[in-house]
Amino acid sequence: MHRRFLNVTVFAAGMTTLAIELSASRLLGNVFGTSNIVWANIIGLILVYLAAGYFIGGRWADHSPYPNTFYRLIAWGAFTAGLVPMGARPVLLNAAKAVERLDSAVMVGSFFAVLILFSIPVTLLGCVSPFAIRLAITDTSQAGRISGRIYAISTMGSILGTFLPVLWLIPSIGTARTFLVFSLGLLAVALLGLGLENWRSAVKHLWMPILLLFLAVVTLPGPVKATEGQIYEKESAYNYIQVVEDKRSGTRYLLLNEGQGIHSVYAPDLEVTYGTWDYFLVAPFFNTPPVSLNSVERLGLVGLAAGTIAKQYTQVFGPIPIDGWEIDPEIVATGQMLFSMNEPNLNVIVADGRWGLSHSQYLYSVIGVDAYRLPYIPWQLTTQEFFIEVYNHLKPDGVMVINVGRTPDDRRLIDAMVGTVGSVFSSVHVVDVPNTFNTILYGTVQPSRPENLVANQLLLESEGASLALLDSIERAIENLQPTPDSDIVFTDDWSPIERLTNAMAIQFILGGELEILR
Prior knowledge:
The chain is α/β, with parallel strands linked by helices. It folds into two domains: 2-219, Growth Hormone, Chain: A (Up-down Bundle); 276-510, Rossmann fold. It has helices at residues 2-32, 36-63, 67-100, 104-117, 119-126, 128-136, 143-173, 175-197, 199-204, 207-219, 276-280, 308-317, 329-338, 353-358, 384-392, 412-422, 451-463, 467-478, 497-510; strands at 230-235, 240-245, 252-256, 262-266, 299-302, 322-326, 346-350, 364-369, 394-405, 427-432, 438-444, 480-481. The strands form two sheets. It has an eight-stranded mixed sheet with strand order 7-6-5-8-9-11-10-12, sandwiched between helices. The chain has a four-stranded antiparallel sheet with strand order 1-2-3-4, with helices on both faces. A hairpin with a 4-residue loop joins strand 1 and strand 2. Helix 7 (143-173) packs antiparallel against helix 8. The protein is elongated, with a radius of gyration of 27 Å.
């Protein structure tokens, strides 16, 4: 019975260790984002803690090879794991304010302060496997078989710990309570193991779950962030979702994860956003004039978010069919609930944008790509193969428009994207969105010139086009940039988008530029 329960304990510890690692990424990602830099630091330090645990656990097991020691060690590991989100909460709330104003010193300090909180529980959990092997070996001739079984059982638990938090618990109960569930579960296993050895020792440790539950009741209620004007928040399998509202104007904004980017905007009477969304309206008018409003027959959107672009196209071009791909169903639900994303001509498709577009049976007048996961464009949406897929789904006079990031002094990503888009499309045009980190690229199937915008603007004025469209075209003309010469071509085999973006972000933050441009 003791040997079987040892296997159960190893399984539970392996499950909890991976669950903590993945939950740590969400705990930090809500404030610091989900960039490769964040992931690398989380994984790197977790591995350091585990390595320390393997070393300490082996020596500890040789010094005190007793089940009581083993289960007390696990109990403390589980207890301290449950304390992490509660101890991190005040640090993260302060860090969220630092991220809003790009205070790099506080950001970095807060980030590593939270990661240090994981040092004790993860190190203790790293002790489990070598300690369990020491307890399980009674015959050295079976050491290899027993070691293999222990690590196999631990790995099976880790597999469950990989999927449970991401696919079920975090979207259902949130990140902090997910920590608590795994902590209390492993603590129950540890106390039961102690009870099998010495029930008095188990009773002495009952204060641990009681204290955890008390602290959870006291500290966990309330929003994950205290952003001014916040009216809604939700943790999904993909994102931390926020909606904030400007009480004076009634305008709502969709924020994701660290909240640095505005992904959608809505107000009942909003026609012009003066943001990146307006520039998507301009796309068809790069074609050779005359281009009328009736020339736009169908729109595809890779990265629907809460439907700002779809709403604007419906207002300007009428109820044309729109297919919008959005990978996160909770963002779709948020759009329908708080952003009036209920246009009858909008076909919402919950799927990865590239996969969804490749399976579409339609040809489009315009395909818009706005699928930022700040600070990155997903690499699979930056390659020559993807743009060939887009090209093949456009009408003969079709246009692709994509939102690309930059900083005031670094346009390397723009240059690379121009080269890649230009390897597929006949013409590429570049428009900077003023007072933002965004540049809009347009790729036209037919050869086109920037002067076409001016000619089409004059024709639209004579036709009585909406002021929203005319204003957007006027701003696009004012912010046209020379199309750079570039022979860089990203492919599915080589797309160093993360390296470029990391370099831009680090250079910008460490350069002391504190003004946030959206």
